Amino acid sequence: MGMMASVSSMEFWCILNLRATLITLLLILFFHLSKKLYSKFFPPSSVLHLPSPSSSTSLPESQSRIPEIVSDSDLKFLIDNLDEKLDEDEKWETVIDKKTNSLSYKAKCCRPKNKPLKYLSTTVFEGCSPELLRDFYMDNNYRKQWDKTVIDHVQLQMNTTNGIEIGCTIKKFPLLTPREYVLAWRLWEGKDRTFYCFIKVTIAETSFIILSSYQIHVLLETGSSMADIKD
């Protein structure tokens, strides 16, 4: 009986190992076939790559003009949302509420019916002017030094007439492949040293060419001895 049990156990483990080997081989085969099909239908040229800074500034003047893709109607939408003129039906949930002696951060989210998920965060900096905060927040080249998720950023175009800028940023998040973000943004200065920024973002995930888009609304304003960001 002991001998038969031992043989049966060995046969059982052999069968399991054989199945595991077959499954592994099938997965490898599927991976190679998928890779070939992907390279056939999505050649490398379809993946967006950051241009060099020199190429972005060598465009003729006629081609460097940017249409008003961020308009005054976007500014109105931004003000209505960041001033928390919220619908009565919307229920906001607190996600984060942290505070130190010189900094506080609050974040909340809203899940409206049949609409995209919305986030609203407020960061308050003590002893900081809104102008300094504006220069810090809007400096994408300096962001590469302190934002560890940013791999590279290049400004593609800038319209000096209406202030619209277009840039491309590559970000890398933990456990994810790098993503390329094409951003168009515009900054307005309001009363009482208040700044409004509207950003439109398109994401290209280089591994699968999955495109999506979203908006970022930023309000920089000042109190008696502090400045805060709402986005």
Fold and architecture overview:
This protein has 231 residues and is α+β, with helices and mostly antiparallel strands. It folds into 2 domains: 2-41; 45-230, 2-Layer Sandwich (Alpha-D-Glucose-1,6-Bisphosphate, Chain A, domain 4). Helices cover 31% and strands 35% of the residues. It has 5 helices and 9 strands. Strands 1-2-3-9-8-7-6-5-4 form a 9-stranded antiparallel beta sheet, sandwiched between helices.
Task: Provide the fold topology.
Elements: H1 2-41, H2 53-57, H3 72-82, E1 92-99, E2 103-110, E3 118-126, H4 130-138, H5 140-146, E4 150-158, E5 165-171, E6 179-189, E7 195-205, E8 210-222, E9 226-230
Antiparallel strand pairs: 1-2, 2-3, 3-9, 4-5, 5-6, 6-7, 7-8, 8-9
InterPro entries: START-like_dom_sf, START_lipid-bd_dom, START_lipid_transfer
Organism: Gossypium davidsonii
Pfam family, one: START
Strand order of the largest sheet: 1-2-3-9-8-7-6-5-4
CATH fold label of the largest domain: Alpha-D-Glucose-1,6-Bisphosphate, Chain A, domain 4
Radius of gyration, Cα only, in angstroms? 26 Å
Outline: globular
Q: How many discrete structural domains?
A: 2
CATH superfamily of the largest domain: START domain
Task: Please report the number of helical segments.
Answer: 5
Q: Write down the overall mean pLDDT.
A: 70
